[in-house]
Amino acid sequence: MICRHCESGILPEGAHRCPLCGQLRSGPQAAVSAEVLPDKVPEPDYSAVDDMVTAELGTLFRIERALKHGRASHVYFARDASGGGGRETALKVIVLHADTAPEEATRFQQAAGAAAGLDHPNIARPYRHGTTDTLWWYAMDYVPVPSVAERLAAGRGRPLDVPLTWRIALQIASALDHAHRRGIAHGALKPTDVLLDDAGWVRVVDTGLAQATRLVAGGADDPTRTYFAPEYFTSPRHAGPLADQYSLALIVRECLTGASPQADAADATGLPPDAGPRAAQVLQRALAQTPSDRFMSVLEFVAALTGGEPKAFGLAPRSPPRGAKRPILLFEPEERPRRRWYRLGVALVLAASGGVLWLAAQAVRPVTNDSVPVPIQTPEPVSAAPEPRPPVSPAPVEIAARVAPAAPAAPAAPATPTPPPRAAPVQRAPGYLSVSTRPWALLFIDGRLIGNTPRIKVRLSPGVHQFRLQRDGFKTYEAAVEVKPGETVSLTNITLSATPP
In what order do the strands lie in the sheet with 442-445? Predict the structure, then answer.
């Protein structure tokens, strides 16, 4: 049966309400009497959708409860029936319109297959997907934490603090850059797609799939469209990394101000003073209407926003070969200021030595016709004869000393030893360590957890440090590395070996 309100072709037999638009079969929903429910509007009935999802996917998943119902997408908590059925899963289902073209299903399958190849700690990737005649679905690992949108809503308009906002922006940028390097864009990033736990760790959902599914499930009156870049509305299939940068800038602005963006009013006003004097200018550039006026990448945008390094996150464009037994140590070719001062000092010493040699050569001059240099004889100084001194009469004190007896001398006070001056401690410049692995792993340095790889320019004191790479399902990698003052040691070509099942 076809719903005459939204013209959907999935209305089950006997259903009293359309699962897609929520309208009654007989017509628009009647007004609710204020005497019955004075302060509450009836919620849409999605029981028909729940029954349809259970009937279509009940053999693949044990669906336990609904987590979220949307306009056309619905999320369920389920357990995967394969492999013993113990894997907790967030199952997302997209209900199709009656006029969905068959090639759209092919695009969805391709997008889901590409998204399944992403391997990043800040990405909740789909590990299983499929399609039927009435719906599309994909399964992700269940992450029981709220989204950024839910946290902001719970705060009732109160913004997040600046350090937490920077941490969220860095992790989102790291996840997006990982996908962008592999030709995958999120396409429709919004605060509900960013899961945030109490420790400040982020998981981005729907990466690579939001764009494909919104072309089918999105509506013109969807409020989340305010997070999309202007080019999305002209060519949604070509909204790429620069569109993700625009959406990320709006999420950062909402975290800093607590206010959601308004349609046709994407600006960077109302930021807190702790954000810094350049935050508004950086955000305004990322929110430019023309994509070419924005930053080159999300990493460059977040680096300019937080004052960090542009290469602070992300893997190399080309993966290192497998089977490398030892890391390759690479030192930065750029000259440090200390080296430049050292070379300047050496140049000054050489110039002074050359001047001394030139002055010494001037002491030898050619004075004969056969051009034999004769050294100039310096005359010896003539000392004058000493003049006779007049006789000196003894002093009155000496005469008195000869007559009077000598008094006993007072004992001399012991001399107090003066402590030697304490030398000022030598300030040694710090060193830096950069680590990249395949796949990602947790990095420990001297027993302290630093975070997940890749990690660029970790500040360390000069000396030898022990680092460890650890990830479930892979052998632990341990090694020692020497970090010199003012230099960066880069560890690449580290490929973790999987442990046998």
Answer: 448-452, 442-445, 463-470, 477-483
pLDDT of residue 299: 93
Smallest Cα–Cα separation from 236: which of 249, 251, 222? Answer: 222
What DSSP string runs through 354-403?
A: HHHHHHHHHTEEE-STT--EEEPPPPPPPPPPPPPPPP-PPPHHHHHHHH
Cα–Cα dist 472/85, whole Å = 21
What residues contact 260, with CB distance under 8 A and at least 6 apart? 226, 254
- Return the bridge partners of 104, or none: none
Taking the C-alpha atoms of residue 335 and residue 342, their distance in angstroms, rounded to an integer, is 11
Q: In what order do the strands lie in the sheet with 431-438?
A: 328-331, 488-495, 431-438, 455-460
Closest CA to 247 of 171, 352, 172: 172
| Contacting residues for 444 by C-beta, under 8 A, at least 6 apart | 450, 467, 468, 469, 470
Residue 138, SS3 per DSSP = strand
89 phi and psi angles, rounded to 5 deg: -135, 140
Distance of CA 390 to the CA centre of its chain: 92
β partners of residue 227: none
Cβ–Cβ under 8 Å, residues 77 and 139: no
Render the burial of 84-96: b for 16+ CB within 10 Å, e for the rest.
eeebebbbbbbbb
SS3 per-residue string spanning 238-288 = HCCHHHHHHHHHHHHHHHHHCCCCCCCCCCCCCCCHHHCCCHHHHHHHHCC
pLDDT grade, residue 347 (50/70/90)?
confident
Q: Please report which helix (H) or strand (E) contains residue 102, including its range.
A: helix 102-116
Q: Please count the other Cβ atoms lying within 10 Å of the Cβ belonging to residue 400.
A: 9
3-state secondary structure of 470: strand
pLDDT tens, 279-331? 999 999 999 999 999 999 999 999 999 886 444 433 333 333 333 334 433 33
Question: Are the beta carbons of 466 and 474 closer than 8 angstroms?
Answer: no
Q: Are 244 and 262 in contact (CB under 8 A)?
A: no
DSSP notation for 398-439: HHHHHHSPPPPPPPPPPPPPPPPPPPPPP-PPPEEEEEEEES
